[in-house]
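Morning run. Coffee first, then this:
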Amino acid sequence: MGYSGVRGGMTAILAAERLVRRSRDHAPAGWASTEQIVLRFRLAVDRIMGEAGLYDPPTAADAFRQAEGDVLEAAHLVRAHRSTLPRLAITEPVDPDEMVVLRRIVPANRTPDGPQLLGRTTDYTGRLLERPDGEPKPDESTVDELVERSAQQRHPRRFYQLLRDLDLVVEHGEEAEDPEPFDITRRAARPPAPRSAVLSSMARAETGALVGLWYRSVLGPDGDVHEITLGDTRHGRVPLRVVHPHTGNPVEIGQIRVTEVEGIEDLDGADEDRTRFDVGYGLCFGHNERKAIAMANLDIAWRRAAPDSPLEQLLLLTTDGLDSGGFLEHLKLPHYVTFRSMVDRKIARRKARKTTEPRVPEPFGEECR
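And here it is:
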C-alpha cells in the first residue's frame, strides 16, 4: 500500500526509497558482504531465520542488510521471499537425540550424564563495552576443530532420561487428535489447537513478544505463577532427511543448527501428582536460547492453564511479529478520512449537546448584567 495521500504521490515514495538505498549501499565503511553478516551477526541471522520460518543463513543475511539491521523487517522480507519458493518435499521428523552438541548446559544438575559444554557464549562475561583497536587477531582453533576433538562428548545422555529413570516426571502420551504436526504455514491456528500448533507458533514467534509473555507467566498477574528450572539446554546440529523418490529410503540432504531446551516445573496443583515434575519443551532454528527457554516454560503453562485462560489465544494470535508489527506499522499509512470522520462526530455531538442541554440561569438575574 503506497502513501499516495502525501503531496507528490509516487514521486515522493520513490525519493524516500532512494534515500534509504543511498545511505545503506554507499556508507563510508563499504558494502557488508553476505558472508561477513553471517559470521559477524550470527545471532541476528539466527533470529531472523526462526521468525521467518526459513532456514537459510545467506538469505537471512541479505534481508538483514536490506532492512538496515531491523530484525523484524528482515523476517518480513524472508517470509515474503519464502512464499515464492516451491515446496519440493517434506522432511522426515528430526530426532534431537542425533544432535551434534556445540553447547550444552544443565542448570538443574552439577554433574549430569555427559559433560557441561559452555560452547560459544558470553553468558559469563561482564557486560563491559569493548572498543577494539585495529584488526582482531585470528583464532587458531575453529568450532569444527573443537567438535572433532571431543566427538565422543557431543552426544550426551539427556537429563530428562535420568528423571524418567527415577520415575519423577509426568508421562504425556501423544494425543489421538494430533497425529500429524500442524502446518501453520498452510493454515492459521485458532483455539482450541493441538500442541504441535502451539509449539510451531512459538517457534516462529517474535522473540521479544514470547519472552514478554513468559515473564508475565512468571510474575503471575493472572493468578498463575510458573517457575521453571532448566534441564538440558542445547545448541547443535541435527541432520535433515527426505525420502528418496526412487528408493523410498531416507537420505540426508544437510544439517541445520537448532536450540533445544527442556524446562522442569514442580507440580503443586490440587489435582496434580505432587510427587512428580512436568517437563516442557522448546526447539527453534539457530542459536536463540531466549526463545527456546520461553517456549519450554510456556509449553508447561499452556498445558496447565485453566479452561477459561486466555494463554492459548495469546500464544496463537499475538506473538507473531509480522501480525503484530504489521498492524502497528499500518498506523503510519494515511488515515485522513477515518480520522476526519471521528472529528466530525465529535463536533456533531458537541453541537447536539448544546441544543439539548437546559439553559442555566444567570446567578443574579439578567437585569444585573
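The mean pLDDT is 86. Good start to the day.
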